Amino acid sequence: MLNVDSTPYRLQMPRYEQNYQWLHLLLDCYAVIDLSVAESIAQSKKKPACYKGCSVCCRQKIPLSVIESVGIKFYVDNILTKHKYLQIVKNFDQHNQLCLFNIDNCCIVYPMRPIACRRYIVTSQCCSFDEDPLLSRPGDVLEPSRDYLYQAVKLTLPFYNSQGIPFESNEHIFSFYKKQNVVLSSIYSKILNM
Ligand code: SF4
Ligand code: SF4
Predict the structure, then answer these.
(1) In angstroms, rounded to a whole number, what is the distance separating the alpha carbons of residues 157 and 159?
(2) Mean per-residue pLDDT of the chain
(3) pLDDT at 1
(4) By the 8 A CB rule, do 12 and 31 touch?
(5) Which residues pair with 122 in a beta bridge?
(6) How far, in Å, is the centroid of ligand 1 from the Cα of 159?
(7) In the chain, how many domains are there?
(8) What is the pLDDT of residue 164?
(9) For residues 4 and 155, is the Cβ–Cβ distance under 8 A?
């Protein structure tokens, strides 16, 4: 078990956390992920190329777990304005290759974006259109700590009523997590209640 203090990265939503019993698990998980990314950036000798408005990577297939998808749905239903919701629906109708939640080159569910989006940081230079830096220049893709990733995923296990499962190793926990992953674009209609 890692002993990490992710408090500075923890988003606080007390009113919603009272009403949605699972929400604190997801926010705790994301805080550990964000800490791991911050540490990875600090340790890297290369400067991140990612910036607000850069969104070539929002065309990729994004894997996410059930609790992460519930988090996005919660955010769409409770936090976004009607105007933003209608912009998402417009994206949906246009069958754009870009992620539904990318509006004007910004992620409008940013605080609830999935782990895959949070951990994906490219250094040196921005990705070019249709580039997969993992193939073209893997050395420029940061690798935030997997120990932190396991720890973060473990925090979400109570959501699945899995606390009683005798996990033997971090890999065991992670394979449980991966087994119930889906691709974000495959659940757009569920998130939008369409
Ligand atoms: S991963 Fe690539 S496309 Fe995505 S924000 Fe970073 S530089 Fe831009
Ligand atoms: S959830 Fe946000 S960051 Fe992730 S692909 Fe969609 S728009 Fe991009």
Answers:
(1) 5
(2) 91
(3) 59
(4) no
(5) 141
(6) 31
(7) 1
(8) 59
(9) no
Q: Between the CA of residue 148 and those of 5, 34, 160, 163, what are the distances in Å?
A: 11, 10, 20, 19
21, pLDDT greater than 70: yes
Q: Dig out the tokens for 150 from the structure.
A: 């396991």
Pocket of ligand 2 (CB under 6 A): 55, 58, 62, 99, 101-102, 107, 109, 113, 117
Query: Which ligand is closest in space to the CA of residue 50?
Result: 1
Range of the domain at 177: 7-191
Residue 104 lies in a domain: yes
Q: Whose CA is nearest to atom 4 of ligand 1?
A: 57
> If you measure from the C-alpha of residue 21 to the centroid of ligand 2, how many angstroms do you get, rounded to a whole number?
25
Q: Is residue 42 part of a domain?
A: yes
Number of Cβ within 10 Å of residue 163's Cβ equals: 10
11 located within any domain: yes
Region 144-161: mean pLDDT is 88
- Over residues 102-146, the pLDDT tens digits come to 999 999 999 999 999 999 999 999 999 989 999 999 999 999 999
The stretch 43-59 carries a mean pLDDT of 94
- pLDDT at position 96 is 82
Ligand 1 mutation pick, 41, 56, 121, max ligand atoms within 8 A of CB: 56
pLDDT score for 174: 76
Tell whether 1 is covered by a domain.
no
